Amino acid sequence: MAIILKINKFPIEFEEALPILRKIEKAGFEAYFVGGSVRDTILGREIHDVDIATSAYPEEVKQIFNRTVDTGIQHGTVMVLDHGNGYEVTTFRTESTYQDYRRPDEVTFVRSLEEDLKRRDFTINALALSEDGTITDLFSGLDDMKNHLIRAVGIADERFNEDALRMMRAIRFSSQLDFDIESETEGAIYRHSHLLEKIAIERIHEEFVKMMKGTRPNLGLTKMIETQLSEHVPGFKGQQVILKHLSELNLQKMDEIKIWSLFAFGFKYNKPSTTKFMRNWKSSNQLTDEVVKTTFLLNQVQNNQVGNIELYAAGKIAVVAADHLSQIFDLAIQPGELTIEYDHLQIKTKRDLAISAKELIADEILTPGPQLGQVLNRLETLVINNELTNNYDELLMAAKSIKNEGSN
Length: 408
Ligand SMILES: Nc1ccn([C@@H]2O[C@H](COP(=O)(O)OP(=O)(O)OP(=O)(O)O)[C@@H](O)[C@H]2O)c(=O)n1
Fold this sequence. Notes:
With about 400 residues, this protein is an alpha+beta fold. The protein has helices spanning about 10-25, 35-40, 60-65, 115-120, 140-145, 155-160, 165-175, 185-190, 200-210, 215-225, 240-245, 255-265, 270-280, 285-300, 310-330, 335-345, 355-360, 370-385, 390-405, and strands spanning about 30-35, 50-55, 70, 75-80, 85-90, 125-130, 135, 150, 180. The strands form 2 sheets. Strands 3-4-5-2-1-6-7 form a 7-stranded mixed sheet. It has a two-stranded parallel sheet with strand order 8-9. Strand 6 and strand 7 (about 135) form a beta hairpin. About 40% of the residues are buried. Mean pLDDT is about 95; it is low at about 100-105. The chain binds cytidine-5'-triphosphate. Cytidine-5'-triphosphate binds next to helix 7.
């Protein structure tokens, strides 16, 4: 069994950060790379943020470096600025500080790496990498990596009690890495699933989307149902049958709009219920708007009600999303059909009309007032439906006759 105990070549992100580790060590403290970047390096995945853990207390870190920012000093985190990069350097600590309702003063700083690794969530996230490439693996994280397992550090119930979001993180990692959840850990998620309701929805949202964008979203969704976590997130309660059905669809390559529309359409939501669902997940207005449009368009596809007006109202983003989802839900349209039809529309917004309000006034066809708006709306509809060509002269003539119709 080949266990890597030493890394021979650091990825560039670590190379660049090595002087930071060395400087801390030179001052007489310990310092390691920790967390996701170590995990992802060993797995050969791209790394994001380089996190450093140290035995130096925050005030000591600040003395070692010239340029630091107190990004989270009460949690023990100081940002060290170096050649345009910022590194989070965090003092070893025992308490989990992840729950928003915890007061920062509950954090206990310690000098021991072991104490720090012990309070981390999963064995694969509890590895420390030192400056010479040695990996400290106190909880068989490397074995678990080899066996593709997400396993809580120590007693799973304790880890989830410290921070219930970790249950969603387990499922997210399972989907991202295509790992299974070790059975003790999975059992603890099942027993503690209700604790998820204590967690800020924004944090759950983030993990949920990462899970759905992972390599195995189907696995993630199935695990959410099996562990009952799905019973404790907005809109999913009591929907196991539908969720199970959704978990069997092809969920690859979905962006956020498609992800949320998948559920809204799956739950047979109309416009107001989709909006409510999105609000409950604390989604941005922009995302909510696109999801509402996509879901509505999918309903129209299902009911065979899609014409140019519907495509125009939905807009390109929703049209593309609905095209993809129509295939996933096996609705009776061809791949890309909506997008092709949308692209053929003569205008995509009112601004594309070949005549403007200003020009109608300048040509003395109309004067400012409600009738002007009505005529423009009418022209817009006629052009969308290809009953008129979007050309200045044709629109001018049409505007005249619409006006005359109105005054007769
Ligand atoms: N609820 C949490 C969140 C984080 N951690 C620890 O803090 C590290 C960094 O956390 P974070 O940056 O949130 O996640 P990563 O594991 O780095 O994963 P990713 O970058 O993919 O989000 C984790 O690896 C883990 O050791 C934890 O124990 N419990």
